[in-house]
Design goal:
2 domains, glycosidase, 11 helices, single chain, seven-stranded antiparallel β-sheet, hydrolase, alpha/beta, globular, disordered N terminus, eight-stranded parallel beta barrel
Length: 468
């Protein structure tokens, strides 16, 4: 038998041609969530760029990191007083592991970068309190009785532990109600802040910020009132746009400036059905100079309301600060709706944050105040173990891959595939794509002279990380 010797160079060239393209420079990570099957954040094989078929792609999605928009503060939850008490009650090892999972920034950790807390009690505290409660018929104009005592039991110690894990986490704070002696009905529920107390209430905010800072907790931003158009909660307060404008313009803003408070003032903090509320405040030339931006929830209205405010006041920031999931909800339906509206939707409208509601509850959906929410499902349920609920996965789908400081890339959108992309601080690009349809879809992606065709499974949310 005659043996023919092959040219080694030819063998190498043939070998390279036979190697699948996906094996060359596998630089695109692929994570897929299939919420119908509750198969979340599954790591799929890496993908690779193609430099050969540029001309074949039709209407590709162009990842142009030069076309950047807002810088993102991040994603997270409200750490209510009830959540804090439940987490603090865990044994030390379980608590330590849970906090690392939630606030760490390593692989398989949620990477929460924003927390919202209440100034005084929210409706997810077991009892209602402010930081300056005095007997009925009394007042405290000097704030002599001001005390963080109630929150020093659980919330503040927990915040200090969280800050030891992520010192850069941004903390937003908002009151559900002023002290009752400042209100016209002298009750925790409803009523209005009496104008005669506007000045002392502004000092109440400053005292809060200063006392928290003494404990090593910097408050990044405050809003004057949670859901000012919903006085039916307990605690709560009714505050019109005109009232909030006067409070910010004539009292809160000047007091912040006088006392050199760097904490941002964000207005509104309520539903997307009333964009005229923040626009009214921002239209006032004196009030707007103290206001960093406006905050939104989505229990009513459409997420496009953020863009309406941005169009009127493009120099002011936007924040999405609350959306709850209910115990009666469907995991798949809630996950897909929140990803589409709260995460992708708010980011594409210019929001710097996307926050879900309560971080933790018990098996009875508590603690909550008398009259507080009885159906709010926490991101986790703490009862003989840790149960991770739909809000946990909603935020993790974004926060695990999109760190604070990322900048949104303006995209040409693909029909029927909501998506959002970010240039991360590590110079990688993160693309989040949702496919609500039952069938898989393919989309071409282009970056400079490279392309890749992505396959998005039906009823899924996919996250891609591009190493450029």
């Amino acid at each position: 038998m005659n043996v023919v010797k092959a040219n080694p160079k030819c063998i190498w060239m043939l070998f390279m041609l036979l190697i699948p393209l996906s094996m060359k420079g596998q630089s695109i990570e692929n994570w897929i969530s299939l919420p119908k099957k509750k198969q979340m954040f599954q790591k799929y094989p890496n993908l690779a760029w193609d430099t050969r078929n540029i001309s074949r792609q039709t209407n590709p999605i162009n990842l142009n990191p030069q076309g950047l928009d807002q810088t993102v503060d991040g994603f997270g939850y409200t750490l209510t007083g009830g959540s804090a008490h439940l987490i603090q009650a865990l044994d030390s090892q379980t608590k330590r592991e849970l906090l690392q999972e939630l606030f760490g920034n390593k692989l398989n950790q949620v990477g929460i970068s924003v927390l919202r807390i209440s100034i005084g009690a929210s409706d997810m505290d077991e009892k209602v309190f402010s930081y300056d409660d005095v007997p009925m018929g009394k007042e405290d104009l000097t704030l002599e009785n001001f005390s963080l005592h109630e929150d020093k039991k659980a919330l503040i110690p927990l915040l200090i532990e969280i800050l030891s894990i992520n010192p850069k986490i941004k903390i937003f704070a908002t009151p559900w109600s002023p002290p009752t002696w400042m209100k016209d009905n002298h009750e925790t529920k409803g009523g209005k802040l009496q104008p005669t107390y506007y000045e002392v209430y502004a000092r109440y905010f400053i005292r809060y910020i200063q006392e928290m800072k003494k404990l090593g907790i910097n408050i990044h931003a405050v809003t004057p009132q949670n859901e000012p158009l919903h006085p039916g909660n307990n605690p709560s307060l009714s505050m019109s746009a005109e009232e909030q404008m006067v409070f910010i313009r004539d009292f809160l803003g000047p007091q912040f400036q006088k006392n050199r408070i760097s904490t941002k003032i964000i207005c509104y903090d309520h539903n997307c059905d009333k964009p005229e509320y923040p626009i009214t405040i921002l239209n006032d030339p004196q009030a707007r100079k103290y206001v960093d931006g406006s905050a939104f929830h989505l229990y009513n209205g459409d997420i496009s309301a953020l863009a309406q405010v941005r169009t009127k006041h493009p120099d002011k920031n936007l924040y999405f600060t609350e959306q709850w999931t209910g115990v009666k909800g469907d995991f798949y339906g809630d996950f897909m709706w929140h990803i589409k509206n709260v995460v992708i939707g708010s980011m594409n409208q210019g929001a710097k944050t996307a926050l879900e509601w309560n971080l933790a509850n018990d098996q009875n959906l508590g603690p909550h105040s008398p009259g507080g929410c009885t159906e709010c499902l926490g991101a986790i349920t703490l009862s003989q173990g840790i149960q991770r609920n739909v809000a946990y996965y909603i935020i993790a789908q974004a926060s695990s891959f999109i760190p604070a400081g990322s900048k949104r890339i303006k995209l040409n959108q693909s029909p029927n595939l909501p998506m959002v992309a970010f240039l991360r601080p590590d110079k990688k690009i993160c693309l989040l794509v949702q496919n609500e349809g039952p069938e898989k879809q393919k989309i071409p992606i282009q970056y400079l002279n490279k392309t890749v065709e992505l396959e998005i499974p039906g009823s899924s949310v996919s996250t891609f990380i591009f190493k450029l």
